[in-house]
Design goal:
Order of helices and strands: HHHHH
Structural class: mainly alpha
Strand content: under 5%
Distance between the termini: 39 Å
Largest sheet: none
Shape: flat
Radius of gyration: 25 Å
Bound molecules: zinc ion
Number of strands: 0
């Protein structure tokens, strides 16, 4: 008996996204562009957030810049504020690690993106993409699904 893939909501969302990315990017070239754009957008956004946090909270190598809020300046925060600051420092460390890893991944990906294949091979990509991730709203597929599953609970629209 073949093992059924997990059908929890998280996994279902993953399968849908996975298939959509194949369906909408069915060639090697498109997969290269998609993944390059995803990597770069991740780096840009995470890098900017880290920069902003460092401006506000310091870069962790010294005391944070004085708060610009008048009246709150010399007053030490309560335990909650200290815990919040710890969480921020922790997050900044995590973001630094993420950015370092993204930088390494970019160096590896550059080699993947140098590759070009003949149109014949791209055609094979398209062909298999169609098999792996057929359009779920395709009329033929819907009809086939109904035949396969013999869904008795589907309402009969013929009146
Ligand atoms: Zn699951």
């Amino acid at each position: 008996m073949p093992e059924e893939p997990c059908q929890c909501p998280d996994c279902q969302r993953f399968y849908r996204e996975h298939d959509r990315l194949i369906r909408e990017n069915p060639t090697l070239r498109q997969q290269q562009e998609l993944n390059w754009a995803a990597l770069q957008s991740f780096r840009t956004l995470a890098g900017r957030v880290l920069e902003e946090l460092q401006k506000i909270h310091g870069d962790g190598d010294g005391p944070a810049p004085a708060a610009a809020t008048p009246g709150a300046s010399a007053v030490a925060g309560g335990p909650n504020e200290a815990a919040d600051q710890d969480a921020i420092q922790q997050a900044m460390g995590d973001l630094e690690n993420i950015n370092a890893h993204l930088f390494s991944i970019e160096a590896l990906m550059e080699r993947i993106f140098d590759v070009r294949v003949p149109e014949e091979v791209e055609q094979k990509f398209r062909e298999l993409a169609g098999e792996l991730a057929p359009d779920p709203l395709n009329a033929d597929r819907l009809r086939l699904n109904r035949l396969l599953h013999q869904t008795p609970d589907l309402p009969d629209h013929r009146g």
